[in-house]
Amino acid sequence: MGLAAEIIDRWAPILVDIDLVTGDHGVFQVSCDEQLIFDKHSEGRHARSGEVEARLEPILGPRLSWK
Predict the structure, then answer these.
(1) Backbone phi, then psi, for 9, in 5-degree steps?
(2) Of 35, 43, 31, nearest in space to 7 by CA
(3) Which residues lie across from 39 on neighbouring strands?
(4) Helix (H), strand (E), coil (C) string for the chain
(5) Residues 10 and 53 sit within 8 Å (Cβ to Cβ)
(6) Residue 23: per-residue pLDDT
(7) Residue spans per domain, the chain
(8) pLDDT tens column, 2-19
(9) In CATH, what number does 3-60 get?
């Protein structure tokens, strides 16, 4: 499952909009409400499994049981 699908799976009931924007030269950034959550360039690496979700949890709350 890709990152966007993981985020939707966890927080779909409270998400208003999710955009996947392609970039050039290995750009990988994740933002929430205009707040940068993860930036591959500044971190010097790609996000580890579960890392982006862990950084979003303080903003969006714990996993929702909605299914």
Answers:
(1) -60, -35
(2) 31
(3) 29
(4) CCHHHHHHHHHHHHCCCCCCCCCCCCCCEEEECCEEEEEHHHHCCCCCCCHHHHHHHHHHCCCCCCC
(5) yes
(6) 78
(7) 3-60
(8) 888 999 999 999 999 888
(9) 3.40.30.10
